[in-house]
């Protein structure tokens, strides 16, 4: 079906991203996976390309573009090449919305230029050992002491945590109340060079191996009060405001992964010969790819509709939950079937389908597990 989501500007941008990937990422991507993250100067190259500032207002040095479509293009082109941009997604799709929405004018002038250039890479630290998705149960504390907060605690599963220069740390600045466990949480934008701040283990994952994921610890870290994001105690409400966009971002990358898997498999079965015939000539191959292409088309239609809704300010949390649940499930089924069509070579990491397979597993966990999303959807339909 003809796609109408993108215009000529988006397609020109797509060509720029595609050329950049072929020149700067694809030739060295295996080295990134072995290292567990891109080299630090790669983010400066992304800054020079201008992708960090697409959605940043012009007065802070950005392009002032409000549409999510440019981020969708990047997700699609990375999937098509079987690569990722490391901590890019967290920096732009997770952290930036918090800075644009809740940072003061002084903070924006102080942080956004370095954010755009790649000089200041960011991450967000919510999850703690033992608490998982229960954000209200977090134990990290930040106690006011004059013109500083004293931060103590630990975080885990922090994407981009190894190379980050600033981390949005969610901490308890006052005790929870019996009436509201979510009260008393605040967000501090912590300088990773601060005394008492340390990066623990770089966690070894089964997928997304070019994206660093770390444990962080804080021992009497002094955080200036001017680095508090928004209002003290309002942290939990802040965390919920960006969930719809975050989940749509995951849905978009999941759809793109599934679409890329079909293309990798289509090319492979046309080249691979078994019993003197190409694998593509067997009826089973045709039927499997037809099933996969149909699922991808359905996921694409849902993603496109949700992107339009987001750009119009109409995307609801339930809409985003539907998109993430459906697209990540499609991704799982499609990538698995496409790997099967590769036979034994699908299990070898030099083939992109193998990376798509291991990278796909986490999408049904992070950003809200499938079980949590089903709860949101059920509530929306009043079940």
Automatic annotation (TrEMBL):
Ranges for domain Acyl-CoA dehydrogenase/oxidase N-terminal: 7-119
Domain Acyl-CoA oxidase/dehydrogenase middle: 123-221
Keyword annotations: FAD, Flavoprotein, Oxidoreductase
CC cofactor: FAD
Acyl-CoA dehydrogenase/oxidase C-terminal domain residues: 233-381
One Pfam family of this chain: Acyl-CoA_dh_1
Family from the record: Belongs to the acyl-CoA dehydrogenase family.
Protein name: Acyl-CoA dehydrogenase family protein
